[in-house]
Q: What sequence folds into this?
């Protein structure tokens, strides 16, 4: 069965950086588009970024709120997708979820996600 395990969350100050990792198992990782979503307290889960499966011609997509600050990448040899977060802001505070696509399209909406990770907490203090 497919399993996604996030790591790398924590408590940081505004302006700091963090890198989240998501280790995948139970799937042919290199063939799956992957994504990151987040859910802040009292808010709905929202899209953060996504990356296509073909690293040689990788395609990425980002939410406007994180463009220029966050970078999604993947290492197919390690079955891992990353989210590099720079210039963090208090409004980035949320539980961050790794997501494997349901099909072949970039998972930019929840209905396009087939498998979720358990989430990792990121807290940014001002």
A:
């Amino acid at each position: 069965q497919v399993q996604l395990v996030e790591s790398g969350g924590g408590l940081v100050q505004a302006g700091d950086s963090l890198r989240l990792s998501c280790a995948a198992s139970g799937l042919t990782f290199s063939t799956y588009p992957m994504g990151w979503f987040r859910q802040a307290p009292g808010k709905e889960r929202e899209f953060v970024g996504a990356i296509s499966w073909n690293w040689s011609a990788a395609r990425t997509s980002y939410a406007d709120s994180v463009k220029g600050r966050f970078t999604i990448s993947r290492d197919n040899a390690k079955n891992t997708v990353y989210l590099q977060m720079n210039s963090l802001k208090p409004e980035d505070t949320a539980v961050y979820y790794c997501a494997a696509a349901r099909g072949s399209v970039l998972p930019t909406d929840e209905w396009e996600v087939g498998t979720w990770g358990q989430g990792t907490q990121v807290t940014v203090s001002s």
Q: What stands out?
A: The mean pLDDT is 95. The CA atoms of residues 101 and 113 lie 4 Å apart. The two ends are 40 Å apart (CA to CA).
